[in-house]
Amino acid sequence: VLSSDDAPACSNEVDNPDFEVPLTSDDIVFSLTGRYVYAVDDLPPEMSSSPCIPNQRSRWLRIGDNEACTMTSFDDETNVTLSELIEDSLEGDDGVTSQTVDILYKNTNNDCSIQITQNFTADPVFIIADESCYKLVHPDHHSVFDFTEWVS
């Protein structure tokens, strides 16, 4: 546990720390908490991670502006649906462009038609939304996990 009532990891209270955090250190979290915490990166998308499965979260990584993007060819309804879901999830970011975006496809009226059996590693999915290019990635991409139990 990185946070408790006695030692909260995040707080909305402004408090000046009594120490300096070396921002160039690779083990800042370990130095402060004694925990081995890692972010997940470069996992291939799962075979079952189609963004068109109702009530299943999919994660998208912003990879650049729309001019550098080759959008995956789907039917118009699928492209519009996924673009709108990404744009809707970006609302309220106050101009900050998120690196990863989670969307939840809720509709069951067939306006999204990416095959569940598609090999997303061999054929990555790219969508243009909000003038940026987004790539479908593993649902845990950039998620942070405590690996202390497995480190010897």
Structural commentary:
The protein has 2 helices and 6 strands. The protein is of the alpha+beta class and 152 residues long. The longest helix is centred in the middle third of the chain and has 15 residues, at 76-90.
Distance between the termini: 18 Å
Count of DSSP strands: 6
Along the chain, the helix and strand elements come as: HEEHEEEE
Across the major sheet, the strand order is: 3-2-5-4
**Average pLDDT taken over every residue:** 74
DSSP helix count?
Answer: 2
Question: Could you tell me the radius of gyration in angstroms?
Answer: 19 Å
Unreliable stretches, pLDDT < 50, 5 or more residues? Answer: 19-24
Helical amount? 10-25%
> What does the main sheet amount to?
4 strands, antiparallel
Strand content: 15-25%
Overall outline? elongated
Class of secondary structure makeup: alpha+beta
